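Chapter summary example: a protein plus alpha-D-glucose-1-phosphate-6-vanadate.
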Amino acid sequence: MIETIATKPFDGQRPGTSGLRKKVTVFQQPHYAENFIQSIFNSLESFVGKTLVIGGDGRFYNKEVVQIALRMAAANGFGKVIVGQNGLLSTPAASHLIRKNQAFGGIILSASHNPGGPDGDFGIKYNASNGGPAPEKLTEAMFAHTQTIASYKTLRHADVNLDKIGHHTLGSMQVEVVDPVTDYAALMQTLFDFDLIRARIKSGLTMKFDGMSAITGPYGKHILEDTLGFAQGTVINGTPLPDFGGHHPDPNLVHAKELCDSVLSGNGPDFGAASDGDGDRNLIVGKGIYVTPSDSLAIIAANMHLAPGYKAGIAGIARSMPTSGAADRVAAKMGLKCYETPTGWKFFGNLLDANKATVCGEESFGTGSNHVREKDGLWAVLMWLNILAARKQSVADIVHAHWAEYGRNYYTRHDYEEVDLAAATNLMNGLRNQLPSLVGQHSIEKADDFAYDDPIDGSRTTGQGIRLLMANGARVIYRLSGTGTAGATLRVYIEKYESDPSKHNQETQSALANLITLSRSVAQIEKLTGRAQPTVIT
Ligand code: VG1
Ligand code: CO
């Protein structure tokens, strides 16, 4: 029986960089998740009878919201929902299922790299029929609906059993429970040379993959161990847990420390990788060398023709604005365009759909291609494995050769987490006001607040980060995070280009020391936030 439940708007349901993210306790308020889901549906047109994909990263409260979303999808008139077994789907797998089944769209339950558990974070985002995150126009429409919502539709019905693969009905809606891994794994086999990778493993390549107790454990085990033949135990922290084992499922040098320490020391495996809460991020380390996500994008772009799915070459490259210019140099050499977009995968969708870009990347450990419309952690890992197998070199050799050919973009990101929101806003406003007067000082050639004109649909997005652009590609960029749930997080991105190979082996923080000092003084970070040091350096 369809029920219409009266409700009142909640403040603050504006989607951020990647969907609506809040503390679990916020989502647990009566009607909170329902209001947002109904506002998603209210922003969509002509979906009656169509298919919706639903799944999440398995974090605490996933189980409950999957059932809420199923009942509401039925009450709102969807014809069918495809849902991952136990309500689980990685973000790239959800994107693939939407595309493969020509679904109307999908609801992904995840707060990605944010911590989980009863005191952690939860999130909901909507992906459109191309498999990609809803564009700004749609997220703004959703937000507008959240501010005026007066009722939502649901079904009075028991929970659907999602333990087993199979078919159910929910009112007049079909529910198909699918294995979360199967279709995604099949897609990967079409893109990469699994035989070549197997041969390289047989001849001794070793690796560790850290699933961070999040969604990619089962994907990693199936693909890396069971299909490719890496030793059992290659995947560590491979069982998804609702609280991610109490860890922060963010694959970087800080949160995947154990893996990084072992591979970087040179005594561990040849290759190390990790993914995040919802499986769309990737960390790449080789014996003795950490590959920055910006370098990884550039190296992948330069080498991806070695993978069968891309042997015809690529149409173009796209990177988020704060991502280093390393990819631009590859694009220039290949005679291709490198697009510079605001932060967040939603801005790549149009470029991928229009075949302007084949590969995209963000400095925040995100890389992906036109195979789906999300960044894809395991895809990047498999791409690296394919490149390692084809080139028969180590990660370090490949990176050093890349720098020798293109030069090195020294790059770091300094995050100041959970600073006072008013202080952070004040700091950004202060920088914005200083912009005209900064040009000419400290070798700053251009200073602006980044705006993006989408070349496909003509939409303009403003206020995407303060840029201080200096001679020879050096940059300092400031922006506030759009994924945090407590206070504000100030991100400072620092980069410098070095063409001289004899200067390619400096430690990153010391190579960038002058720019780091400048980044702090120009923005008066300590004076305005009370922070002398960042919380996280990647
Ligand atoms: C961060 C990253 C951004 C990424 C986003 C979502 O956003 O900087 O590059 O697209 O997270 O990634 P922000 O606004 O906090 O800087 V995920 O894996 O959390 O969906
Ligand atoms: Co993620």
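Key point: Residues 421-438 form the longest helix (18 residues).
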